[in-house]
Write a structure and sequence with these properties.
Blueprint: H1 15-23, H2 26-37, H3 55-62, H4 69-82, E1 86-90, E2 95-98, H5 100-107, H6 110-128, H7 152-171, E3 181-182, H8 183-191, H9 201-221, E4 227-230, E5 258-261, H10 263-275, H11 291-297, H12 303-315, H13 319-330, H14 337-348, H15 356-360, H16 369-378, H17 389-407, H18 411-423, H19 427-431, H20 439-449, H21 453-469
């Protein structure tokens, strides 16, 4: 992902809900329990980890069992130290005390709790980038670095890329809420070149290797509440000569792993993106800003997010005052003005009849009069003056310019262009005279989009006339 292009806006749960989710995650709750369990006799090693002799007591305090109990306790302790729940008093003696952050989990604000959780998340992400060291110990019990082909920066970059793509898939409006992503597709998104139609065997092998790495990493990220993960089916990793314990469905993609960001994970990923310098908006960011910021800010939003943002903005304002502020912000002759007016019209559709006085006040306005007439007619208002022919053509150019800015050469815009040419005889002979900054650009686009060669040629001729009139 490039940090110069804005990401799609995300819809976050409230901070109070997210803080409750954070406190209930297995890893943070274990870290807090160990921080409260620690006392004067607790000792840590030079790296801040619990000494081996005290791990069994920590396991017992957490009520853990099984082969991974000691490792889970050690991880919870590491999170407690890194998140400030435990403070090391004397490094030489290895003594500890409760950290300042521990009290925040019970008496702090939701933001305080989430800050602690974010610190825990960073610890887990760092751990997830470290390879499995099993089998890499030499005769002295030390890690054989020569056998460890590991580039920490490359591994962290790989995981960040995967999580960035998962964020895009979660934030996108085309993705059903909470829908998990197949692990093969996620791995392929960072391995397979975008211009490769058919992956080679070598690339497919890289995807398979990446899936196995991600399987381990997502298993680590689930206890901190970052992802919901359905692991890769163990039968897929069994020896080819072994018979499966039960019949398997080779077409079931979920067997290869399924993952999604949780609401807490979406919050955490956005926080990391913002920290890294990305423009990562969230619905509600513009609620306390002016109408100009709302109309400009939602210009690139998909329809659902734009409406949700506008609804939050309107909830904080008296309807009539909001309508007047929106109309004032919609004025302008700059390149972004047509799309601002389209967003204004969409926002006003959410206000209701109480906005009528504001719309009547701009009936004679050259830029807003057509928009006002459309709104009043849709509301069933009486005594709506008919627009002049010049106003109709101006509004047409403004509307097409807005659609071009919002959607580009979409099928909906093609249909609009065809409809305009069919409904108005002599359309191109008249429209090139419209005094609108976008007239020539709109006519050129109509010539490009219209499927009829004769009509397209008329549009291009009209565009030439309009540009000549504008002095260009």
């Amino acid at each position: 992902m490039s940090d110069s292009s804005p990401l799609p806006p995300v819809r976050l749960h409230s901070e109070a809900e997210l803080a409750r989710d954070a406190l209930s995650t297995p890893l943070l709750s274990r870290a807090a329990r160990l921080a409260r369990w620690a006392g004067p006799d607790t000792r840590v090693d030079a790296g801040g980890g619990l000494v081996d002799e005290q791990l069994p007591a920590a396991v017992e305090a957490l009520g853990l069992s099984g082969d991974d109990a000691a490792a889970d306790a050690a991880e919870a302790w590491r999170v407690a130290v890194d998140a400030g729940l435990v403070e090391i008093l004397d490094e030489e003696e290895g003594t500890v005390t409760a950290g300042e952050e521990l009290a925040l989990l019970t008496s702090g604000t939701p933001q305080d709790v989430l800050a602690v959780w974010l610190a825990a998340l960073e610890t887990v992400l760092a751990d997830a980038s470290v390879p499995d060291l099993d089998g890499l110990l030499d005769e002295d019990g030390e890690v054989d670095l020569n056998a460890l082909e590991w580039d920490p920066e490359a591994e962290a970059e790989f995981l960040d890329g995967v999580l960035g793509n998962l964020y895009l898939l979660t934030a996108g409006e085309d993705t059903p809420g909470g829908a998990p992503v197949p692990l093969p597709a996620l791995a392929a998104s960072v391995i397979v070149p975008s211009d490769m139609d058919e992956p080679t065997n070598d690339v497919l092998e890289q995807v398979s290797d990446a899936m196995m790495r991600l399987d381990d990493q997502f298993r680590m990220l689930e206890p901190v509440g970052f992802v919901a993960y359905q692991p890769v089916d163990e039968a897929l990793m069994a020896d080819a000569d072994e018979e499966p314990a039960a019949p398997v469905d080779d077409t079931d993609v979920s067997r290869y792993g399924m993952v999604r960001l949780t609401p807490l994970g979406l919050y955490g990923m956005r926080a990391r993106l913002l920290e890294a310098g990305f423009d990562a908006p969230a619905v509600g960011d513009l609620a306390d800003k002016g109408a100009d910021a709302l109309l400009d800010g939602t210009a690139g939003y998909p329809p659902g997010a734009a409406q949700a943002e506008t609804e939050q903005w309107l909830q904080r304002r008296e309807p009539l005052a909001a309508a007047r502020e929106l109309l004032a912000a919609a004025r302008g002759s700059d390149a972004g003005a047509p799309l601002r007016r389209l967003r204004c019209q969409q926002a006003l559709s959410l206000v209701g009849a109480s906005a009528e006085p504001a719309l009547r006040e701009v009936l004679d306005d050259a830029e807003l009069g057509g928009l006002a007439r459309v709104w009043l007619t849709e509301q069933g208002a009486a005594d709506v003056p008919a627009p002049s022919e010049a106003m109709v053509y101006w509004l047409t150019i403004d509307t097409v310019a807005a659609q071009l800015a919002a959607e580009g050469n979409s099928e909906e815009l093609r249909a609009l262009v065809q409809g305009l040419a069919q409904q108005h005889s002599g359309f191109f002979a008249a429209v090139w005279r419209v005094d609108h900054p976008a007239t020539a650009d709109v006519l050129e686009a109509m010539g490009r989009l219209h499927p009829d060669k004769k009509v397209a040629k008329e549009a291009r001729k009209a565009a030439f006339k309009a540009r000549s009139q504008q002095g260009g």
